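Thought: the user wants the 3D structure for the chain below. I'll pass the sequence to the structure tool as-is, report back what it returns, then summarize two notable features.
Action: structure_tool
Action Input:
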Amino acid sequence: MPKLSEVRICFLGESFVNGTGDPQCLGWTGRICVNANQKGYDITYYNLGVRRETSTELKNRWLREVSYRLPPEYDGRVVFSFGVNDTTMENGKTRVPIAKSIENIHSILKSAIQLYPVLMVSPPPCADREQNQRIAHLSQEFAVVCQQLNIPYLNVFPILEKSSVWIDEARNNDGAHPRAAGYQELAQIVNNWDAWLNWFPEVNVSK
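Observation:
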């Protein structure tokens, strides 16, 4: 049997990358890696999602954690998805001002693309309408940065905001995170994304 194509992927972000709320402990990141495995790839999957983390905190840790797991001799790739925690209100203001969030994503992604193939998935919505307005704005600003850096960007926010599955599960869970069906819906969006599909062309593996 031919050797499977080995790919190592680090997913970086916050609780939505972590898969918080999913009783199956897969989230969307685990599910899309299952799918890639089934297409004939040997995936080493690193979930580096940290709950409550902002882009400022991510900026300070991502390179150290990724470079340790993706040494140059391997086919290493990176997927980022963050920003929701930046928009959370604390003491009357957002945890990270939007100008700082934009500065952070630019710094993170500009460094990352010099080392690895990179994809960016937008922050998803939650069940709070006011916070969703801030997330939507941030998602659009992130799109501009990714376009400037020529990084594929998937804005899942407008799709999931209209999703009764995602929003209802989040509302009935903890107000932010969905359960298994919501993460499955997000995984399906990513699985159909051209940029992700381009990473995993069909492999003919004889049995």
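Final Answer: Structure generated. The beta strands are 5-13, 41-49, 76-81, 89-90, 93-94, 118-121, 153-154. The longest helix spans residues 129-149.
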